[in-house]
Design goal:
The complex is a heterodimer of chains A (329) and B (307). Chain A starts with a helix and ends with a helix. The longest helix of chain A is centred in the middle third of the chain and has 32 residues. In chain A, helix 2 crosses helix 3. Chain A has 2 domains: 71 residues; 182 residues, MetI-like (MetI-like fold, Orthogonal Bundle), CATH 1.10.3720. Chain A has 329 residues and is an all-alpha fold. Chain A is globular, with a radius of gyration of 26 Å. The model of chain A has no long low-confidence stretch (mean pLDDT 88). In chain B, helix 7 packs across helix 9. Chain B has 2 domains: 76 residues, no CATH class; 211 residues, MetI-like (MetI-like fold, Orthogonal Bundle). Chain B has 307 residues and is mainly α. Chain B has a two-stranded antiparallel sheet with strand order 1-2. The N and C termini of chain B lie close together (4 Å). The interface between A and B is large, with 129 and 136 residues. Chain B: Belongs to the binding-protein-dependent transport system permease family. Chain B: InterPro entries: MetI-like, MetI-like_sf. Chain B: Keywords: Cell membrane, Membrane, Transmembrane, Transmembrane helix, Transport.
């Protein structure tokens, strides 16, 4: 048994990995073989073979834990006694949690709006230019970088050196400040502006997504619409405002809501760059801190449920807008 | 990134592209000839590239130089070394080479298993008629809204009870489960695009569902599999939350992201370590992404996005 649980050498780990994949393949092959063998099996038995393993995993790994978390949010820190809504009251009344809620609100409003705006302007500007491919690839690239990696990249941009003779700045942003004659700043330490500097990182990562989707939408605007507007003497900014933006409205809604949901659950950036200190924590980070650092499972569960509740209205809005868009067609 | 919303962005039909490109080339020229527009585009492009470039250059500079001056000085006075990478990869305190193996061992099964499961499930939802099919499909689709945070605490205690805690199995299982709703939804969309007549024909020839799945559908779905594969690869390789929760205390299991995040917290001013470490963790996803970008974009536009 030990062999399957503790792999310490590289060879062992790779062997274990191959074993896991083979085990999975063997189990699936056995199931499919079993449902395929008898000639006249009813459809539902075949279906069980195809969907059964998935449904089992989802039930055990997603549905049960989610229900259990909702239950746990009404219990105290180790789940031993029922406390009603106390955990939620704590989240909404204590000072440091109010900072957390305010920061989350800041993130979820700013990131989607700025990201979509930037992505839209950039997609419009480089659309059908000679450099389109390269220009898009540059903005798209951060999507491949982990949020941890992006956090490190930007932490270096914000790096601060004390303002003394003989000490040179090594962070790009502070160097720019010094060149312009300002004093260098501790960007990540001073609340409340430090939250904005973290938000920048998220915008930097997500803009590529916004740009890609919106660029595809811009390209799909029918030629006759653009042509007709041009014949009417519409050009430049007016074209953007009265033709491009209204034509891609459904895509805009999808981008804003998708980015908003991603943003709600971001914890990597905050954790990497400030660890949630200096009043920069957000709900997703606070969940991790409470559940796995403070071992206050009740409070952690309440924060997770809160996250879930915050996601629902955004998705509801998204679905509604898509319905409206389809009715218009 | 775990929940999802459908992205309905229309993709331009390929056959119309040629004439359009010609017609709109003129318009594009006018657009970028305005100096303000070009400057905005240039500034955005620079802001999106320079931070990464700065850290990349830093990762090749000698430790002392990094502490004494900004990376831009290396542009006029280039002094580069591989010492940082040597230290990060094989040094006693960091040993990123082992962590790279961990990340790889975590990622491969966590990509292969959910894709296989989702392909089978998506096939059943698309082409096998069974009672309750639509209801089940909607239920699976709806599971995409559950943030993974909601599942972590009970899942961890399940793993502890099963004696799996701190092993690769917990991470493989978790990533596979979390990926399923989106994967099924995406692959189902692709599968529905395949003409029903093709499947009917195979059935007429006496092929069962298993045979149809492997011989008719799988070959046609390669682009879709590639699209979701790239997606899932990036998601698992870049994940921090799942790995930290289930393997945070197990040095033989932790992936690169966890250690990089830890280094940023504990040795936040050792930029020679952090810069090189960050790039060790970034390089593989970057290569995968650049070589398979076509599929990634297709997946992004066709179905949905992990949130």
């Amino acid at each position: 048994m030990q062999w399957f649980l503790e792999a310490t050498t590289t060879g062992h780990k790779i062997a274990l990995m191959v074993f896991a994949i083979l085990l999975f393949a063997a189990v699936m092959a056995a199931i499919l073989f079993a449902v395929d063998r008898p000639k006249r099996v009813p459809n539902w038995i075949v279906a069980v073979g195809f969907v059964g393993p998935t449904l089992l995993l989802l039930a055990v790994g997603l549905v049960y834990p989610a229900l259990e978390t909702v239950r746990g949010s009404f219990y105290n820190r180790d789940g031993s006694s029922f406390v009603g809504l106390d955990n939620y009251v704590t989240v909404f009344s204590e000072d440091n949690f109010q900072t957390v809620l305010f920061n989350t609100l800041l993130w979820v409003v700013l990131v989607p709006l700025v990201t979509t705006g930037l992505g839209l302007v950039y997609a419009y500007l480089v659309d059908r230019t000679r450099f389109e491919k390269l220009a898009k690839a540059l903005v798209f690239l951060p999507m491949a970088i982990s949020m941890v990696g992006a956090g490190v990249i930007w932490k270096f941009v914000y790096e601060y050196r004390p303002d003394q003779p003989g000490v040179r700045q090594i962070g790009l942003l502070n160097q720019v400040l010094v060149l312009l004659g300002f004093e260098p700043q501790q960007f990540l330490l001073n609340a409340p502006s430090n939250s904005f500097y973290l938000i920048v990182v998220m915008i930097w990562i997500q803009a590529g997504f916004a740009m890609t989707v919106l660029s595809a939408a811009i390209k799909a605007i029918p030629d006759d619409v653009v042509e007709a507007a041009r014949l009417d003497g519409v050009g430049g900014l007016q074209m953007f405002r009265y033709v491009t933006v209204p034509s891609i409205r459904p895509a805009l809604v999808v981008v804003v809501t998708t980015v908003a949901i991603t943003t709600l659950k971001v914890f990597d950036i905050v954790r990497t760059m400030t660890g949630g200190q200096f009043s920069t924590s957000v709900v997703a980070n606070e969940f991790y801190v409470q559940a796995f650092r403070q071992f206050n499972f009740g409070l952690g569960a309440a924060l997770a449920v809160l996250l879930f509740l915050l996601v629902i209205p955004i998705i509801a809005y998204n679905v509604r807008q898509l319905r409206l868009a389809e009715e218009l067609r | 990134m775990t929940t999802t919303t459908p992205v309905m962005a229309p993709v331009p039909p390929d056959e119309r592209r040629l004439t359009r490109t010609e017609r709109r080339a003129v318009a594009a020229k006018n657009k970028l000839s305005s100096p303000a527009a070009s400057i905005i585009a240039l500034v955005i492009a620079a802001l999106w590239t320079v931070p990464t470039l700065g850290l990349l250059i830093t990762s090749f500079r000698p430790e002392l130089d990094i502490r004494r001056s900004g990376w831009w000085t290396a542009l006029s006075d280039p002094q580069f070394t591989l010492d940082n990478y040597n230290e990060v990869l094989y040094g006693g305190a960091t040993n990123f080479a082992t962590l790279f193996v961990n990340s790889l061992v975590i990622t491969l099964p966590a990509v292969v298993i959910p894709i296989s499961l989702a392909l089978l499930a998506a096939y059943a939802f698309a082409w096998i008629k069974f009672p309750g099919r639509n209801l089940l499909f909607v239920a699976v689709f709806a599971l995409q809204v559950v943030p993974i945070q909601v599942t972590l605490i009970p899942l961890l205690s399940l793993y502890v009870d099963a004696g799996l805690a701190g092993s690769f199995w917990t991470i493989w299982l978790s990533h596979s489960i979390f990926a399923l709703p989106l994967a099924i939804f995406l692959l189902h969309n692709f599968m529905k695009e395949i003409p029903a007549s093709l499947i009917e024909a195979a059935r007429m020839d006496g092929a069962g569902h298993v045979k149809i799945f492997f011989q008719v559908l799988l070959p046609l779905l390669t682009p879709a599999i590639a699209a979701f594969g790239v997606f899932q690869f990036l998601w698992v390789w870049n994940d921090l939350l799942v790995a930290l929760t289930f393997a945070g205390g197990a040095p033989d299991v932790v992936p690169l992201t966890v250690r990089v995040a830890e280094l940023a917290g504990t040795r936040g001013s050792d930029w020679y370590l952090l810069a090189a470490g960050a790039f060790v963790s970034i390089v593989l996803p970057l290569v995968v992404f650049l070589s398979l970008q076509r599929y990634f974009v297709r997946g992004l536009l066709a179905g949905s996005v992990k949130g």
